[in-house]
Every structure is written in structure tokens, then in C-alpha cells.
Design brief:
There is one protein chain. The chain is built from ten helices and seven strands. It has three domains: 144 residues, no CATH class; 93 residues, Orthogonal Bundle (Helix Hairpins), CATH 1.10.287.130; 145 residues, Heat Shock Protein 90 (2-Layer Sandwich), CATH 3.30.565. It is an alpha+beta fold. A hairpin with a 3-residue loop joins strand 6 and strand 7. Strands 2-4-5-7-6 form a five-stranded mixed β-sheet. Strands 1-3 form a two-stranded antiparallel sheet. Keywords: Kinase, Membrane, Phosphoprotein, Transferase, Transmembrane, Transmembrane helix, Two-component regulatory system.
Length: 409
């Protein structure tokens, strides 16, 4: 039984069993002691009677017959009745029995008092230890209520109450994790709002300026056309910024469940670069795909395609006209690797450790399009699927991004 797995309960049960043995032993001792007292009282009574009879000249044979005879007669009962000794005679009227009763009563009361003290002491100690355990548990639970999860309920013993403590401690851990998660979400939301607010200042200021210029020269079609186009670029930048930040925020907060399944690597890559092919043609750049079209990878098609598209877009941003972007995939015994290589300007050594930071733009990238969120978003998507993303670059020769997924993931 789970009840007896509790150490304190086991100790208390052992005490009760020991008390039962003591009670039985005390009863046996008291019974034996009373038998001895009765024998002594009988011996004294017979000694007194024999002494009196001998002094009266009664023969020893008659006395012997009297004390050894086990049969009672009516004559003896009549004689005792004449002396006032019957079955209804009060105990106080029988001096020998009265003394025996007093002595027996003293022994019984003493034994009962001693056993009561022992039983009360054992029960008190058990309840006292239990009360201390409850008070300690209550104190820790009050800490949990106050949001302090540094202490833990006792789980050093087995038993029903300790199993309950373990469940309560587990519940406290869940509440702590939930509280930390909620705080993390609040921090992420606060950081996101701050980032968006900061990043929107520049395009909004530009929009305000463009609108003022158009308002001042409404009759100049060239001016209206030029700054309307610039307003379109700023609005597109704002849209990209908000969409990217919302996606990163959802990823950071764990609000996106990736639907991983077996997909053709070629299909994933094609999905990611579909909207970039036209841009590459317009900029006289080439996107080259190399790999086994039957090769598969376990990933979320939509999100992984977006991650690859962001990296390819970054490669196009830093590749001159006539350049190319190669997407090569292959499988090793443990990994499926997708490499995205360009022969563009490369990354400065002091920038390569910062390219996955939000809104980070190197000095060389200030004149290129983008808001500095494509690579951080790609990293969040890949790592959210237990993948790994890395980068190598040589200044003036190009950059290689490598995305790796476990073959059994």
C-alpha cells in the first residue's frame, strides 16, 4: 500500500505494534502479579486459621482434612452466614479481600497511566512531525503564490503525501515556466514594437517629405511621378519591415508550428526562388541549381523555401551584373546540406559575426535594398526546425551560406 511507503507512517505503525506488545506484556505481568498476591493472601489466611485451631487444641488430622477438602457443605455455609459472611457481603467487610482489591487497583491504575502516557507521547510526536511538515509545505506554497519558485517541497520520502508534494512541485515548475514564457513574450513584444517604431521613422519621414514636395508642385508631372515612385519604394520597405518583424516575433514566441514532411530539395529550392528569377534576369544575373532532383529533405516546404529565398535575395543584393548564384545540395550519411554560393563582393571580416543580427547593415550594404531582417529570419526558420545555418566568405570573391538538416529529422 502507498500509505506504508511514507516513512513517518511506517514509524508510527511500528510504534503502535510495539505499544500493543507492551500492553499485552503489561497485562500478563499484572495477571501474574495478582495471582502471586492472591496466593500470598490465601497463605496468610490459612496460616492464621491453623494457628488459632492449634491453640484451641484441634488435632492436626482435623485441620489437615479441613484445608485439603475441596467440597463445601451446607453446615459450613450456615456457620459463615451466622458470622455475617455470605456471597452478598460487602468487600469492605472482608479485610483480606479489601486489601487485595486496593493493591490490585493501584497496579492497574499505575499500568494504565504509564501506558496512556506512552501512547499519548507517541501520537503527539507523530502529529507534531506531521504538523511541521504541513507548515513547511504551506510556507513554500505561499512562496509559490508570491511568484518565488526557489524553494521546493520535500520529496525525500515515498508515500501518498510526498507524491502529492511531487505533483504540486511539478505544477509549480509548469507555472514558473509559463510565467517565464509569458514574460519572454512580453519582452519580445516590447522589443518588436521598439524595433518597428525605430525602423519606421526613416521611411515615414521620407514619405512625409515626398508628400510635401508633391503638394508644393502638383502641376509638375515629372516631380509628382518621381516622388510618387519614391513613396512606393518607402511603402514597400515599410510593408517588408512589418511582415518580417511579425514573422520573427512569432518564431521567437513559439507561435509557429512547422509542418515537417519529406519534400524534394529541388521543389523546396524552386519554391524559394520562384519570385527572384525575374529579378535575376532583369539584373543580368544567373541562378544555377545543382543537385539530385530525387533527393529529399524533411522540412516545412513554405518556411524553408522562404529562408532559402531570403538568402538568395541577399546574394543578389551583393552580386554585380553578370554574376551568378549557385544553389547546390547533396546528402552525407547524417545530413542534407544546401549551399548557396555567390561570386559577389563578399563580407567584411568585422561584419561576418553580425550578419544574423536584426537590422544589422554593414557599411558596404548601406546603398543596397533591404531592411536587415532577411538573414535573421532565415536563421530563425532553419534553427526552428532543428537545422543549422553557417556562412563563409572571402572579400571580393563571394559568400557561401550552408543550411544543414538531419537526414532522419
Amino acid at each position: 500500500m502507498k500509505l506504508f511507503q511514507d516513512k513517518q507512517v511506517r514509524y508510527f505503525c511500528c510504534f503502535l505494534i510495539s505499544f500493543l506488545f507492551i500492553l499485552l506484556g503489561s497485562g500478563a505481568w499484572l495477571f501474574s502479579h495478582q495471582i502471586d498476591s492472591a496466593k500470598e493472601m490465601l497463605f496468610v489466611r490459612e496460616n492464621t486459621m491453623i494457628s488459632v485451631l492449634l491453640e484451641q487444641g484441634v488435632s492436626e488430622e482435623v485441620i489437615a482434612a479441613a484445608i485439603t477438602n475441596t467440597e463445601s457443605g451446607e453446615s459450613g455455609a450456615d456457620y459463615l452466614s451466622k458470622t455475617g459472611r455470605t456471597g452478598n457481603t460487602a468487600a469492605n467487610a472482608l479485610p483480606e479481600f479489601s486489601e487485595f482489591r486496593k493493591e490490585a487497583g493501584r497496579h492497574i491504575v499505575s499500568a494504565a497511566a504509564w501506558l496512556s502516557v506512552l501512547l499519548t507521547g507517541g501520537v503527539f510526536i507523530f502529529l507534531w512531525k506531521r504538523d511541521r511538515l504541513y507548515q513547511k509545505a504551506e510556507g513554500i506554497m505561499q512562496q509559490y503564490i508570491a511568484g518565488d519558485f526557489t524553494s521546493h517541497l520535500s520529496q525525500s520520502s515515498e508515500g501518498t503525501i510526498y507524491q502529492m508534494f511531487s505533483s504540486m512541485d511539478e505544477l509549480a515548475t509548469i507555472l514558473q515556466a509559463r510565467g517565464e514564457s509569458q514574460q519572454k513574450e512580453k519582452d519580445i513584444l516590447k522589443s518588436t514594437i521598439s524595433d518597428i517604431s525605430h525602423q519606421l521613422k526613416t521611411p515615414l519621414a521620407a514619405l512625409t517629405m515626398y508628400q510635401e514636395i508633391i503638394a508644393e508642385e502638383p502641376e509638375n508631372p515629372n516631380t509628382v511621378k518621381e516622388f510618387s515612385a519614391k513613396m512606393g519604394v518607402s511603402l514597400k520597405r515599410i510593408k517588408q519591415l512589418i511582415e518580417a518583424m511579425l514573422k520573427i516575433t512569432r518564431l521567437d514566441a513559439g507561435g509557429i508550428m512547422f509542418e515537417k514532411q519529406k519534400n524534394s530539395v529541388y521543389e523546396v529550392v524552386s519554391h524559394g526562388i520562384n519570385e527572384l528569377k525575374l529579378r535575376a534576369e532583369q539584373e543580368n544575373k544567373e541562378i544555377i541549381l545543382e543537385g539530385d532532383r530525387d533527393q529529399t529533405v524533411s522540412c516545412d516546404l513554405e518556411w524553408t523555401g522562404e529562408a532559402i529565398g531570403n538568402i538568395v535575395k541577399n546574394a543578389l543584393d551583393h552580386t554585380d551584373s553578370g554574376g551568378n548564384v549557385q544553389i547546390i545540395w547533396a546528402q552525407s550519411p547524417a545530413m542534407v546540406r544546401i549551399q548557396i554560393k555567390d561570386n559577389g563582393s563578399g563580407i567584411l571580416p568585422e561584419d561576418i559575426h553580425h550578419i544574423f543580427k536584426r537590422f544589422y547593415r554593414s557599411k558596404k550594404s548601406l546603398d543596397t535594398q533591404g531592411v536587415g531582417l532577411g538573414l535573421p529570419l532565415a536563421k530563425a526558420i532553419v534553427e526552428g526546425q532543428k537545422g543549422v545555418i553557417s556562412v563563409k566568405s572571402e572579400l571580393g570573391e563571394g559568400t557561401t551560406f550552408t543550411i544543414s538538416f538531419l537526414t532522419d529529422s
